[in-house]
Amino acid sequence: MEATFLVKEKFKILLVGVITGLTNGLFGAGGGTIVVPAMERILKVEEHESHATAIAVILPLSMMSTFIYVRHQILDWKSLLYIAVGGMAGGILGAKLLSRISPQWLHKIFGIFMIVASIRMIMG
After folding, report:
1. Among 44, 65, 82, 89, which lies 20 to 30 A Cα-Cα from 8?
2. Given CA atoms 120, 19, 62, 44 in this order, what sign does their dihedral have?
3. Number of neighbouring beta carbons within 10 Å of residue 73
């Protein structure tokens, strides 16, 4: 019985990974938008751990996607350096702030961010 549970749990985790990678490859997003809700709802992982794991997932996803984008010559090299530097600074600040935000507020802030991002994408 326990072996069946482990197989089902591993399948869920792999499925979340496949969907996340597909979303990242298509849209340049997926780490947070897919991993956080999936880890919280499907895998029953605590909010802070879900957000931290999503950040860690971004590196291998981005490396694979970047490799393909470089091969197809579809990167904006002029913007890359500046955005990367700003992203690293923001990443440090966000990681330090994460532990100071309650799970309830973290959940609300993430939800608001997702709604605003969705509206902006729909409105063009």
Report:
1. 65
2. positive
3. 7
The mean pLDDT value for 29-42 works out to 86
Average pLDDT score over the chain: 89
Please tell me whether residue 51 adopts helix, strand or coil conformation.
Answer: helix
CA distances from 66 to 24, 52, 107 (A): 11, 22, 30
Neighbours of 2 (CB within 10 A): 6
pTM: 0.75
- DSSP class of residue 28 equals S
Weakest-pLDDT range from 44-53, 55-64, 65-74: 55-64
Token couple for 33: 């938008």
Secondary structure percentages of the chain, helix, strand, coil, to 5: 85, 0, 15
Q: Which amino acid is at 120?
A: R
